[in-house]
Amino acid sequence: MVDISAAASDFSASAKSALTIDSSTDDANALNIGIIGCGRIGQCHARSICTRIPNAKLVCVSDVFESAALKLAKTYQVPMACTDPLDLINSPAVHAIIVCSPTDTHADIIKAAAAAGKHIFCEKPVDKNLHIIADLNNTLAQHPVKFFLGFQRRFDSHFRRAKAAVQSGAIGKPIKLHLTSRDPAPPPVGYLKQSGGLFLDMSSHDFDMARFLTGSNVASISAVGMADNPEIAAIDDLDHTLVTATFENGCIVTIDNSRASSLGYDQRAEFFGTAGSVNVGNVHPNTCHFTDKDGYHSENPLNFFMERYAEAYVEEMKAFVDVVLNDTPVPCGIEDGRLTVLYAAMANLSIKEKRAVHIGEFEKSTDGELSARY
To answer: What is the pTM (predicted TM-score) of this model?
Structure first.
């Protein structure tokens, strides 16, 4: 652990030294938080905590790349930084952790944090493997800690307003939900190779939003897809997909995903019912538009998820802090994460076998073991 006032050249050696805590980090009225993973999403959460959430305090950051940890610590005047996440987890100054590291590190970090009595916020997915998620669920059940999974779209004001409309009965009996989620451009191939595929990496947000809006779970999934991008085809992934799902409450849900769209970041929803419909449109940089002889003109939607869901990330982190400080129910936990991984597996099997896949093929069997099929 290193005090950021130390010279950068001393960082590596200090990070490996015994942990020391400055008592000034203690605040009885705030939740002391440590962030593991100082990349883009870690920086986003750090900004929220340090500038928008007065009852939270960022006291430590950790990243295997010491320069990343030190840079983030200096940016927000965080008193401690380290390269070993166990230093952060075992710090008595840290009450809760935010896991923003690569997916394959999540399981070990979650287990260590639970054993240390630290509350946990984890970016999705919990893990790519259903068996590992089941094991983590058992671990968490043995420790009195909160586990909050990061599906930020649940905290977007537009989608929350749509859910409220459905719950109020404004659209009557819900019949069909269509979700559109298209990225402006695909991530680097290096990222895609370890992402778990489009259905796990990208569609998982839409699977979760479908559950959030319908208030129900998937009964069956049928998926089709194609790989138009040669680099994506070469790694046996897809870049354009369409999922049709039936839900237990009778709703029909379609999910339209693309890795690239000339429109830019395209995020829309339409929920149709017997008495009306509710729509969520794209969010634009401004509301200015003009018309001329060639038609109606306005700016494209906000560029990407960090801009489109900027406020949702803040609200999500506020909710996590509230869950811990006020011991309120977790709005999105490990079971929500398990189901999105389960649905991704169903969609992949549907593509492979060119048929509809039913939940019973993957759900827990009578002896409590997850299907060995995935």
So the answer is: 0.89
